[in-house]
Amino acid sequence: ETFAHHQHLVDIADSAARMGLISPALAAVGGADFDPYACDDAEQVLRVAVELGVAVNHVNRAMGLHDVYPFVLTAAVREKLAFAHRWIGAAA
Question: Any idea what DSSP says for residue 34?
Fold first, then answer.
């Protein structure tokens, strides 16, 4: 389950980077050059994915649609996601 959520979040972050949708507040993580698949810092990936997820959720709600990513990432969940990110990165 953690792996599946990790993959969703990495894909959200990757899509945002490829489409130039990463906000200036996150420019420090690489902007359009940001590659969540190659990034060693899981927290950076989560920041990008969560920020985009919140923004898209707002747009969807305005259109009467369901949230793209309706989950809250608690500290414990973030730790599990970071573990999955490190584990996948080590295996690559």
Answer: -
- Read off the tokens for 6: 């990790």
| Whole-prediction pTM | 0.79
Residue 29 is encoded by which pair of tokens? Answer: 């993580």
Spatial separation of the C-alpha atoms in residues 10 and 48, rounded to whole Å: 9
Q: Which domain holds residue 43?
A: 2-91
- Nearest CA to 12 out of 51, 44, 60, 49 is that of 49
Q: Are 29 and 39 in contact (CB under 8 A)?
A: yes
Helices (H), the chain: 2-18, 42-62, 75-91
Residue type, 37: Y
Residue by residue, pLDDT tens for the chain (92 residues) are: 999 999 999 998 888 888 877 766 665 555 557 788 888 889 988 988 888 889 999 999 999 999 999 999 999 999 999 999 999 988 76
Please count the structural domains in the chain. 1
